[in-house]
Amino acid sequence: MKTLQSILLLLLFVPLIKPAPPTQQDLRSIYDYGTDNFEETIFRQDYEDKYLDGKNTKVKESIIIPDGKSLQLQKDESVTALPPKKENEEMPTCLLCVCLLGSVYCEEVDIDAVPPLPKESAYLYARFNKIKKLTAKDFADIPNLRRLDFTGNLIQEIEDGTFSKLSLLEELSLAENQLVKLPVLPPKLTLFNAKYNKIKSRGIKANTFKKLNNLTFLYLDHNALDSVPPNLPESLRVIHLQFNNITSITDDTFCKANDARYIRDRVEEIRLEGNPIILGKYPNSFTCLKKLPIGSYF
Predict the structure, then answer these.
(1) Which of 91, 98, 130, 142 suits a disulfide with 112, CB 3.0-4.6 Å?
(2) How confident is the model at residue 260 (pLDDT cuts 50, 70, 90)?
(3) Its family (predicted)?
(4) At what angle do helices 24-32 and 38-51 cross, to 10 degrees?
(5) Would you call 147 helix, strand, or coil by DSSP?
(6) How confident is the model at residue 83 (pLDDT cuts 50, 70, 90)?
(7) What's the rounded Cα separation, in Å, for the pair 18 and 31?
(8) How far is 175 from 197, CA to CA, in rounded Å?
């Protein structure tokens, strides 16, 4: 009787017991016996578990083809779009030159005319180029210029009014050009350099220097002057006139013939060597000077 009850209980609980999952060896045996795509299915599941989980799922979505014509990359968020170009954005004015803090450097770039300059320019260095002419429009819109240097160009002509609007200009160098006459100079010049040109005395007007009350340094050496320019301002400290064709001077050239007490005390250097003049013949021409001019006295 007890045996029969035990058998009945065993038969009652057998359907509730689940078989254990097959081992890898059992899987291999199942594949060997007719499951054609089982290994491929296992590989795909393993790939999706490893590479399409968490952050790596973005790799799959990194390329989007919205319209079939263009690709939009979304993976690299560090790439930023360029800002849209402003409609009124102007081209830079310094194309051939170097512009830095109000200074413009156009040296040895073979330009044959003054290039467009920023309106705020204060210093222009255009040395050793091929500029032949300076015009009134070159500086018409640049009133803040304080220094211009055109050393080593081919300048033959400077239009009237070229410097008329440069009320702040303090230094002007036209050295080593081909000038035969001087233009009207701006009133606040402290330095004017026109050495190594072809300037003749008739190319300098009587009042060219008269009103330049701040002019301190004047360099006109190595030209074709046959006389000292008239009406040199009292402010001058250095006057270079060496290697010209100056043959004579007067008592009024540097001093005042009618004022024996007049002293030109600011002049520190006058150079006249290399001229045909014999300075010893004109002793009354230097009575107002603290130092005699440099040159030949015999």
Answers:
(1) 130
(2) confident
(3) Belongs to the small leucine-rich proteoglycan (SLRP) family. SLRP class III subfamily.
(4) 140
(5) strand
(6) very low
(7) 22
(8) 7
